[in-house]
Amino acid sequence: MQPNMIHSYEKGKEQRGLIAPSAKPLAPRVALLANHLMALSRPSTKHFVRIKKIVYLLVVFSYLFSACSKEFLEKVPESTVTTGNFYKTEAQFEQALVGAYAAVRSVKGSIAAWTMAEMRADNTFYEYNVNNRGLAYQQREDIDGFLDDNANDLISGYYNSSYVGIARANSILGAIAVSELNQEVVNRFVGEAKFIRALLYFDLVRFYGGVPLYLEAVTSAESAYIPRSTVEQTYAAIEADLSDAVAKLSSTSFPQNGRASKGAARTLLGDVYLAQKKYDLAEAEFLSVTQLGYDLLPNYASVYELSNKNSRESIFELQFQQGNQGQQSNFLYPFLPLAEDVSLITGITSQNRQGGGWNIPTQEFIESYETGDERLDASIAVAEGTGPIGSMIIESVKSPVGYTTTAGKRSYAFIKKYLHQHSLENNTDDDFPVYRYAEVLLSLAETLNEQNRSGEALPYLNKVRRRAGLGDIGELDKTLLRDIIAHERRVELAFENKRWTDLLRTGKALEVMQQNGVYLKLRFNNLLPQSYQVTAQKLVYAIPQREVLIGGLAQNPGYE
Question: What secondary structure letter does DSSP report for 356?
Fold first, then answer.
């Protein structure tokens, strides 16, 4: 998926949210009014019920009114893009598919993504900026401190944005089933759309538990409101999508184009099996990926170089492009210190007065790297200087290896792996990794160890370690090796939004995060006493309260 392809879709905003071509679209003004009513911010429960009834009556009236004329229903305005004249050609399906990829990027490349999947865990923290206590920033802090509730906008936004991508995939799947395109083309569109849908549902089920399963385009008010499925039902739907995607997608070719391939689908399916502890099935998928031509790049730092986008190590990554097309990334900047001048870090004239101070590597995490691990210097750097939080004066940038803060100075560790040459502030060219081959190797090691085949796991683990400049592991005790593999994943996949879901999968989230809370409270006296009171209920996020009130969804325990 090329960034300019995403841009071409974003320019055609009138084509977003298309329903299946076989459906009769709602009257535009009725749909618009419904959207405005739904967008009201946090009214009372009674008001929400009233809104839902009004929307339903408007929809029913629209259908009854338009049904008076069959001819009116069947005519399609020739000068307007609608579901009646879209989804006819391969180019139109291509445009819709690019829109679905754009939705994935807006979800998994968002602030919510790294807040909910990385900062929630023990790798990173934030700077408490007493000068900026805005709600948006407090909600990020709440997620880190397990103080989030059912009104957190980041958590609601991730949920809702995921369903935008799912809706786009559903529209493609519904339309392609009645298209006249040749089977090879149909297979590609179906495979990619199902990969996208599965990827988004996989995050939803891990973050929120069982969720409503929309597997067809929503075409009526009745079909818009369905109950939550169970976790097991959600996983079954994901597995079915990915099994079909594996069968229909072509093998990976190099150089890659950023789209889903058979390798990406098998990797995701293996990860889905691993999350459910279906180790034998996960093993089969990961082993098959090792036969598809992927490999580790020789040097860890080079994995993230701009010249190595979509490399042989990359299995699936979010595509970005710096410039004025609106396709740039900027996740580097929130990770930098708040400062009037960050040019010593970025290499260009740039400031970071508002957006920085987030996802900061903790000292505990920095100290967890083994001596000689080349990934530490490749992943993290330290800004040193003076001045209070919120207006640091950066005087130098140093390596974290063996670093101690100079007397009279203060230091700020930041994520370095996404720091590369760019010419405009907040306009970078870095892609964001979703799956890399190194993760496949470590996942394969985990599945083998969990099946009491520790000796077979070691070659895959040690291949990753050797690339990092470390010696081989020879441990054969299953329990000890489990912890070694978990640590290897922590440092290898640092800041790639894997740590929280790894803690969930391995059953370590409660233990690790309670310990992390004790550690942080000893270092930061601004933390509330009730923060980091991690319970089993906090292992999933709240279902957005609007969905509970309008859609009648059951809320997760502890968030009522």
Answer: -
333 versus 74: which is more confidently predicted?
A: 333
Say how far apart CA 520 and CA 119 lie, in whole Å.
13
Across the strands, what pairs with 382?
398, 413
User: If you write DSSP's letter for every residue of 245-303 in order, what string do you get?
Assistant: HHHHSPPP-SS--SS--HHHHHHHHHHHHHHTT-HHHHHHHHHHHTTTT----SSTGGG
- Gap between the Cα atoms of 8 and 10, Å rounded: 6
Q: Which region, left, alpha or beta, applies to residue 364 given φ > 0 means left and ψ of -120 to 50 means alpha?
A: alpha
Residue type at 122? Answer: D
Confidence category of residue 80, pLDDT binned at 50, 70, 90: low
> CA distances (Å), 77 to each of 26, 84, 93, 393, 431, in order?
14, 8, 20, 60, 40
Residue 381 and residue 401: Cα distance in Å, rounded?
Answer: 9
- Give the count of beta carbons closer than 10 Å to the beta carbon of residue 451: 15
With tokens 């291949």, the residue in question is: 463
- Spatial distance between the Cα atoms of 317 and 548, rounded to a whole number of angstroms: 33
> How many helices (H) and strands (E) are present in the chain, helices listed first?
22, 7
CB 244 within 8 A of CB 190: yes
Q: Report the 3 state secondary structure along 167-235.
A: HHHHHHHHHHCCCCCCHHHHHHHHHHHHHHHHHHHHHHHHHHCCCCCCCCCCCCHHHHCCCCCCHHHHH
337: left (phi over 0), alpha (psi -120 to 50) or beta: beta
Query: Are the beta carbons of 266 and 288 closer than 8 angstroms?
Result: yes
**Banded pLDDT at 21 (limits 50, 70, 90):** very low
Burial class, 511, CB count within 10 angstroms (exposed 0-12 / middle 13-18 / buried 19+): exposed
Q: Read off the pLDDT of residues 284-295 as tens digits, 9 standing for 90 and up.
A: 999 999 999 999
Q: If you search the block for the tokens 């990619």, which residue do you land on? A: 192
CB 215 within 8 A of CB 161: no
User: What's the pLDDT tens digit per position in 442-496?
Assistant: 999 999 999 999 999 999 999 999 999 999 999 999 999 999 999 999 999 999 9
- CB contact at 8 A, 434 and 317: yes
Beta strands at 124-125 and 360-361: parallel, antiparallel or unpaired? antiparallel
Q: Which of 27, 36, 20, 32 is nearest to 65 (CA)?
A: 27
Q: Are strands 393-398 and 380-386 parallel, antiparallel or unpaired?
A: antiparallel
C-alpha span between 516 and 554 (Å, rounded): 31
Task: Give pLDDT, residue 501.
Answer: 98
Put simply, whether the predicted model's pTM sits higher than 0.90 gets the answer no
Angle of helix 262-275 relative to helix 437-450, nearest 10 degrees, comes to 40
**Three-point CA angle 129, 130, 135, nearest 5°:** 80
Residues contacting residue 70 through CB under 8 Å, at least 6 positions apart: none
As given in the structure block, the two tokens for residue 559 are: 């968030």
Question: Tokens 């590609």 — which residue?
Answer: 188
Contact 401, 372 (CB under 8 A): no
Question: Residues, the chain, total?
Answer: 560
Structure tokens at 213: 């399963």
**Distance of alpha carbon 358 from alpha carbon 345, whole angstroms:** 16
